[in-house]
Every structure is written in structure tokens, then in C-alpha cells.
UniProtKB/TrEMBL annotation:
Keywords: ATP-binding, Kinase, Nucleotide-binding, Serine/threonine-protein kinase, Transferase
UniProt similarity note: Belongs to the protein kinase superfamily.
Protein name: Protein kinase domain-containing protein
Organism the protein comes from: Phaseolus vulgaris (Kidney bean)
SUPFAM superfamilies to which the protein is assigned, alphabetical: Protein kinase-like (PK-like) (SSF56112)
Entry-linked Pfam families: PK_Tyr_Ser-Thr
Residue ranges of the region described as Disordered: 326-365
Lineage: Eukaryota, Viridiplantae, Streptophyta, Embryophyta, Tracheophyta
Classification via InterPro entries: Kinase-like_dom_sf, Prot_kinase_dom, Protein_kinase_ATP_BS, Ser-Thr/Tyr_kinase_cat_dom, Ser/Thr_kinase_AS
Record flagged with keyword Coiled coil: no
Coiled coil: none
Binding site for ATP: 66
Protein kinase domain segment(s): 38-319
Biased composition (Basic and acidic residues): 350-365
Amino acid sequence: MAFWFCCGKVSNRARRGKEQPTWRVFSLKELHSATNNFNYDNKLGEGCFGSVYWGQLWDGSQIVVKRLKVWSNIDETEFTVELEILARIRHKNLLSFRGFCAEGQERLIVYEYMHNLSLHSHLHGHHSFESPLDWNRRMKIAIGSAEGIVYLHHQATPRIIHRDIKSSNVLLDSDFRAKVADFGFARLIPDGATHVMTTKVKGTLGYLAPEYAMLGKAYESCDVYSFGVLLLELASGRRPTEKLSSTVRQSIVDWALPLVCEKKFGEIADPRLNGNYVEAELKRVVLVALMSAQDLPEKRPTMLDVVELLKGESKDKFSHIENSEMFRNPLDAETNDGTSETEDSFDYISEEKELERPLRENAEL
Ligand SMILES: Nc1ncnc2c1ncn2[C@@H]1O[C@H](COP(=O)(O)OP(=O)(O)OP(=O)(O)O)[C@@H](O)[C@H]1O
Ligand SMILES: [Mg+2]
């Protein structure tokens, strides 16, 4: 079975490698006791894979246990993919994996606990009003999460496409260091390949690159698009799409672009910052975000470029972006009013959308 095959490979690799594996197999009994029998009071949230619980091990260390909803073959694939990837990666900006449990029908993944929960909870959840993230923290989160993705795209072997970059998958430790999480949708890119083809488009609406949503071809540039949306969210405090009326939604990109063309950067800044931000950095974040979240994948920067630009390390590349056509042309109000017709149910949900027509391997973007 795929799961045991995967775990066999993982343990072999760990045995062959010089470093000791940092994860282990947990018993169900141990996880029951750590989470007070998966008590409702221990529940941190729920995603499309299942429920997430806080727990404490006998040695006092705090953990998070993700318990898959209902076991099925589909969940099994996502479970094995996530384990395979988690066992390969180690980076300061990627969530650490403590181990897993597979007993009977139960499939559980154990992670380190992130004291400040997700970026989503700080931008849109209960933390957003009590103590809004200050600008320094936002910059640190932008650069840290970008560095985590650089590791996946450029340093891991084989390279990894995350496919579900979004604010609820960026977790924050006690020091507000960003850690990218959730590899259940991720894919390893075989050596020599430029992309992976999928028959099912996975990810979260509002963050999906258009070519991936339409053709099911996943490149690293699809993560760059999602990261661009996340950067705009971080700078503005807005959601990836906002409702204009009961049937019309506006994407954060369509909202921000005209403001940039009119050089109204201050109107993009999150009002909860009360004007306390570094103007040059805000401009950098917003311009890099819009370059990343543009429709043409070949025009998007790589994540290496994104990190360099966010850190302000490349004056040449930045002035090239500043002078880009897309920020100069006045918007044509008649052909692009920045809105699109969507269904209500499209409101910020994770979904697995079957492609409606067969995919062509050589389809042009
Ligand atoms: N390691 C962790 N430390 C602290 N909180 C966590 C951790 N992992 C998840 N959470 C919390 O649990 C919530 C649910 O996580 P989960 O990944 O299941 O759902 P999601 O990110 O909202 O959606 P998706 O299933 O699409 O990833 C997160 O928003 C976060 O607040
Ligand atoms: Mg998640």
C-alpha cells in the first residue's frame, strides 16, 4: 500500500543519512493522552484535511496534532505526500514535523506548536483587532515566508511546488518568525521536468494562478502568484477577494493595481497601521506583490528575485519593476472595471475542483 511504501522509503533515507531523523512514530494512546482525548477545548481549528488540536507530551513539549477527517484513499494520498515531503525538508521558515501515527483507521500528523498561530488569524481573525501586526513584523513575515518558499523551489531535491500558499498556511512562532506549513497538496517535481500535470486543481480560490486553475499545469510560478496575493493581504489587511455586492467579487489584485497606477500607496496600507509604516518598504512590498500576481506566468519574478527585492538588495531590478508598463498605463475603465462575476460559494474556501475537460499535456499557456 502507498502509505507503507512511503514510510519505508522515508525510514531508509533517514537511516542512510548522516543526520538523525528528528521525527518519530507516535502511538494513538500517546496522542490521546497529549490532547486530552481530542478534547474540544484543545481544538485550534479545522481545515479541509481535518481538525487541528493543541497537545502536550509527557516531557512538557507542546505539539499540534492534525487528525484526518474521515480516512479514505484520497486522504491517504495526501497523508503520504505530506509525510514524504515533511521528512525531506528542514528550514527555519518551514514548519517542523515531529512525527505521525497510523493506527487502524486513524491518520495523524504531529507538528511543533506555533504560539502565534497563523498569519490569517492576525490579519482577519480574532487577533486582528486586539494587537494588529506592526510594520516591522509584517516585513519580517514577508521575507521569512518567501525564504521558506525559496528553499522548496530552489534548494530542495527534488524541487517542491507547494500549491496552497495562503495566509492560514503561514504560521508564526513565539518570536513571530514565519513558518510555511501544509504540504498535503504539494508535489515533487521530477528531475529534468519543468512542471507537474494534475487532473485535479487543488488550492484555495483567490490565490490560484489563472493558468493553473484553467489548465492544471503546476509550475513554481503558481506559488509565486499565490505569494503575490499573500503579500498584498499582508500590506493591506484585506482578504484575497472582497464582496462588492451579492454576486460580484473583486480580487485584491484588481483593487490594488489602479491605486498603484495613481501612486496612491498610502490607500493600500492597512488602516490598522495608523500610518506607522516605512513608505519605501510598503512600495516595495506592493510592487513586488503585483509583479508576482500578474496573469502571465513568464513575467512573474522567481522566489529568489522576490526575496532579493523585498530585502531591497537589487536597485536595478527594483527600478526595472517601478518603470514597468503595468504600473504606467492608466486603466481602461470600460474593458476592465476590476470586478468579476462569481458565485457566493466562491468565498474563500479550499476546494478540489475537477477539470471540466481533458487536459492536453502540451497545452500552451
Ligand atoms: N503547528 C501549528 N501551531 C499552531 N496552530 C496551528 C498549527 N497548525 C495549524 N494551526 C491552526 O489550526 C488552523 C487550522 O489549520 P489547517 O491547516 O487544518 O486549516 P487551514 O490552514 O485553515 O486550511 P487548509 O486545510 O486548506 O490548510 C490554522 O488556521 C492555525 O490557526
Ligand atoms: Mg493549513
